[in-house]
Amino acid sequence: MTDVLNLLQSSPFAFTTTATVIGLMVGSFLNVVIHRLPRMMQRDWNEQAAMLLEDATLADCATKLRSANDIPHRYNLVVPRSSCPKCGHQIRAIENIPVISYLVLRGQCATCKSPIGLRYPVVEAASGILTGYISWHFGFGLAAVAAIIFAWSLIALTVIDFDTQLLPDSITMPLMWVGLLVNITGTFSPLHSALIGAVAGYLSLWSVYWIFKITTGKEGMGFGDFKLLAAIGAWAGWKLLPLVILLSSLVGAVIGIMLIVLQRHGRNVPIPFGPYLAAAGLIALLWGGDLNNVYLGLFR
What we know:
The chain is mainly α. It has helices spanning 2-10, 12-53, 56-68, 100-104, 119-138, 142-164, 169-182, 191-216, 223-236, 241-261, 274-297.
């Protein structure tokens, strides 16, 4: 083990290559998280509501809903094994090699030939590429490992938000606490800056939410967005929050206008903001200092 660590530390190529392979494998697991976590949340909400109301009818509805969605009683991120939603064929290890298996199977189930969503290899490839780049960018050490975990979390949050317009607390809250712990030694930001960043990140969007709601009577964003920006602030520090908000707002506005122009979205159809926050947060962690200098230099 010592020899392996020495090799990874002394050889940027070995470290980057190893990290990329690990990133591809983790990308496969992220697909499981993206698919199962929202369903697990829905199941828990139904069961908790039934328990709180002590309503047998509601409890029966929750059971029926679980059956309708093919959710077994024992269902989590590990159990049951992944299978084809059409024919039930359990995915073998040889069929679960990131990206490669998708190409070999030509994007189809090995048994029933039902199409496999393109998202699966895209998530795996994105995880591998980002993991490899981050390992090269930071080099061997705590900063690279921490930033990789940050990126994996943002990938999962991005796709879940696109699908369900939810940003699960089970990801955003631990992400915030881990960011504060990582910055105890000032890995990405001094601890006091990270702490202020977490508070300011939450309160800034919380304030916008209430101003918009009081003014228009509508909800402009979800509470998950507050928590995600708090997590980003905990990682990058408060000085980069204006950059994150600016980048995410610009990208969100451009994409939102494009969707409306292309008539894929009506004006009243909500567009998730979490993916743009996630992209801006990752950019800030990687290049925030340089971008901030350019941004501030425009006002000098």
